[in-house]
Amino acid sequence: MYVRGTVAGEVEVRTVSTSYGESDLAEVPLRLEGEESEAEAASDQQPEYETTTVTLWNKWTESAEYVEPGMELLVTNAKEEEYQGETRYATTGDSYVVVEPTFLVNVTAIRNWVECPRLYYLNKLSGVPLNYPVVKGTLVHEVFGDLLRGRDLEESIDARVEERGLELGLLGETAEGVAEDVRENAQAIEGWLEQGRLTEDDSEATADDDSTREFSPAESSWRSEQLLISETFGIRGRADAVRRGAPVELKTGKNLKKEPRFKDKVQAACYALMLEEHGGNVDTGTLLYTKNSALDRNEETGDLTPAKDFSMGGGLLKFVVRLRNELAAMEIAGDVPTGYEGSAKCEYCFEQDTCMVVSGRLDQESKAGQIGQPIPADEREYFERFYRAIEEERREVHHEYAKLWEQDAQERADDDRALIDLEFVEKRPLEEGRWELRAKRTSGANSKIREGDFVLASDGHPVRGNSELATIERLDEEVVLTADEPVEVTRLDVYPSELTTDRLLAAMHDALLKGTERRKDVLFGRTDPEFDTVSEIFIDNNAAQNEAVTKAVGARDCALIHGPPGTGKTYTIARAIRAMVERGERVLLSAFTNRAVDNALEALLEQLENHGEIDADRVVRVGSESGVREDMQPYRLERAGDPEDRVETLQNAQVVAATTATCGSRVMKEQAFDAALVDEAAQLTEPGTCAAINLAERFVLVGDHEQLPPVVRAENDLTESLFERLVNCHPDAGVMLDRQYRMNQRIQAFASREFYDGKLRPAEPAVAARTLDDLAGVSRDALPEDLQDPVSFVDVDGDSSQYTDSEEAARIVDLIETYEAAGLERDDIGVIAPFRAQVSEISSHVPDDVTVDTVDRFQGSSQEIIIVSFTATGTLEGPIFEDYRRINVALTRPKRALVLVGDPNALATDPVYSRLLEWANA
Ligand SMILES: Nc1ncnc2c1ncn2[C@@H]1O[C@H](COP(=O)(O)OP(=O)(O)OP(=O)(O)O)[C@@H](O)[C@H]1O
Fold first, then answer.
1. The predicted structure's pLDDT at residue 391
2. CA dihedral (222, 225, 227, 230) positive or negative
3. Any idea where the DNA2/NAM7 helicase helicase domain is (predicted)?
4. What are the b/e assignments for 894-906, b being 16+ CB within 10 Å?
5. 764 and 659 inside one domain
């Protein structure tokens, strides 16, 4: 049986004599997980779960040593015992003990950990840099997958090398040279697969039925790349291949011993564990050392066979779980490994120097020792604070994984995290050995899943069923996906990714350990940013914008442009970049979202075209095909192609535009710029901003900290943007754009007073006087009197539900009809509600061309008329839109009319909303 619960006290470890001799045991007080009783659920009390003792025998006492009260523990195959009238549990010979099972440790992390826990930590901090062995390794893996799917060797090599043209170019490699290297390694694979045909019954095609037929792994009991997620062991990873249910791992190095390397066995054992959890029975693991077949028998001695099998014993599997427990417990406790935990010898380690430098600079205890001076105490404190915050964020990603099995399909769908009840249509093999999968949607349900996303495509359950990582190629009534293996897809789940967290950590590491002293003095407020004098006039009709461009161009360190809604941020950014380009500088244009990058790029291209200053060929957009807007595709940097060509296009670009997430990619990290301009900077975490500014000598941040804050899952230091911190720390480096080009005077008045010290003003009289009458075919006279003013309040009692309000929704449906009758086009109308449930409620009753969404989706856009549904009756438990910054965004989207719908009695209970009522009813 499974026993699962929370450690409820100190663990006692001791040695006892048994009939088998001396044995270790650990007694763990555990508060068992159980069902809440009805009475407990009804009262608000914390349910009282039973506390019992679980005895962990022998080697499992090692795991017991790491556990602390509050950690979660899972024991499989436990036996129940009666002891002095109490039910207790103990491990059996078949048990596994898992510490913090929801902490999902990656298989490669366990492999690094067994090599050296400190190495695991260093890899996590700095990420894997762009280097040839890594790219070559990836290519060999890709070719391996292709061969398993039945693709021709030469075709695969050519295609895969071509796909990585940009990376290879940056590394100074030629396509021919790389192809030759990959071929040497791939021959080992092909030879081995060929041998498999002769000696094993891998193929369904036997000699009898067709002796001339080529071996085709695609038809055999092989599968390439399998994503495995374990809800029991808290492990996840992608096995390179699985042959007749057993894991096969590919290594591009050599190994002249008979046995696989221990760390490689550990990796294969992790996959074996997960395959067994999914119903398999794994006796062997195989490691394929591809370099072996390229070695010269006359020069090398030892076992040159590339494929090495080993038997998968229970002892190894348990050892792997104990390793994983050690890692998970250390992460949960927030400790940093020193290297003493393992037995690796530092003098043989390739990373010894890096390890000593990091230890020295962060003043960390380390087995390798320390070199160099520690960074100042405030920087170390910052490092620790943000390290913790980023790790908390990682735990939130792990919770997203846990929801894959904790929530049922309907709950996932209700949470917008899955598309369920799809009708499988067909699977079609693609030329390159991959598959196209099609399924029909049976409902119009919403979800966070978008075209271009990676998703878990399954035949029913993302973890327990047959499931594959797939890319969404098209998403309308039909879903079209591509995947490595065919799945009869009926459900899609959002794939939780740790990539962002990994990149945040690397960006913070680079900012602190690789950043210049001057940069860090500015970031830590030890020195004020400096500016060169610039006397040129850049913008002659808007003094604040002109000052912003002057500051951006003249900044030696940084400039901060605070841009309230509609104040011409994009216009100012474009003008500043043009000025920098004219001065011969290389500029990075970045923002949190692809949409903002494309908007700014569009504005820049327009300006460049009007002034003919630089060749549009020297502007490059870096991003994925699905991320970049259609009209910006011509500027998108194609990664595939001739290495020299690809790299030339990127290196020659004077302006490179990419999201901050992409700035953390291996390719972008190789680039250097004179200046980085970052839009939407108030929505970025500090490390998120660093990913972009680390690449440039100076930086300009543009944003509005009175609008949406950074999007993070956990509540911690990541919720304040670097932009906001620097605006407060270096007010002289900042400029606020104070003329807005969007809203009627009456609409902007409240936001100006409440959020911008009354400084926001319409840029021109024509903006101030905007009304619906300006729109062709619209007459305000056709509207009821109470809707003729640019701001109106519609009083609705509400239905007292928490996250929806059917009365408000019904009233909004009427309002839309009224506006349509007065001549408004539906796509000029936007509706904003605080909760997704209310968005769905309203959407289901209004025509599709009216945009209905939450504030987050509206940030950065504007509409002729905006209707806000407050969805609050009776009392308010807090700011309805979570945060006043959200209501600021909602109120500043419309140009010509704003209609507020809600219960005034509820609103009047909050000081900000009560001032809002006064203004709306004035
Ligand atoms: N100095 C200016 N002179 C004339 N028009 C301007 C000027 N600055 C901005 N505009 C115009 O004002 C409008 C809003 O500008 P822009 O799109 O740059 O605003 P924004 O601050 O980026 O908006 P948002 O708040 O949505 O991000 C655009 O149509 C732009 O062309």
1. 94
2. positive
3. 542-639, 647-713
4. bbbbbbbbbbbbb
5. no
Q: Which atom of ligand 1 is the closest one to the Cα of 704? A: 25
Look-up of token digits 């209970």: 909
CA separation for the pair 145, 239 (Å, rounded)? 11
**Is residue 488 within 8 Å of residue 424, measured between CB atoms?**
yes
Q: Let me know if residue 867 belongs to a domain.
A: yes
Rounded Cα–Cα distance for residues 446 and 416 (Å): 6
- Closest C-alpha to ligand 1, atom 29: 741
**In this structure, what CATH number is given to the domain that contains residue 442?**
2.40.30.270
Give the residues of the chain that fall short of pLDDT 50: 37, 198-215, 218-219
CA of 883 to the centre of ligand 1 (A): 26
- Note the pLDDT of residue 291: 87
* Domain residue limits at 467: 399-499
- Ligand 1 centroid, distance to 565 Cα (angstroms): 9
Last residue of a domain, one of 704, 737, 770: 737
pLDDT tens-digit map of 355-382:
999 999 999 999 999 999 999 999 999 9
What ipTM did this prediction achieve?
0.97
Q: What is the pLDDT of residue 617?
A: 78
Domain contains 833: yes
Query: What pLDDT is stored for residue 516 in this prediction?
Result: 96
pLDDT of residue 60: 95
Q: Is the CB of 762 under 6 A from ligand 1?
A: no
Burial 786-806 (b: 16+ CB within 10 A, else e): ebbbbbbbbebebeeeeebbe
For residue 860, the CA-to-ligand 1 centroid distance in Å is 11
CB of 863 shorter than 6 A to ligand 1: no
Q: Which long-range contacts (CB under 8 A, 24 or more apart) does 847-854 make?
A: 847/816, 850/816, 850/826, 851/827
Same domain, 541 and 465: no
* 344 exposure class (CB count in 10 Å sphere: 0-12, 13-18, 19+): middle
Q: What is the DSSP letter of 443?
A: S
- The finding on whether 643 has its CB within 6 A of some atom of ligand 1 is no
| 8 Å CB contact between 722 and 680 | no
CA distances to 39, 635, 645, 651, 678 from 617, rounded to whole Å, are 70, 8, 14, 12, 22
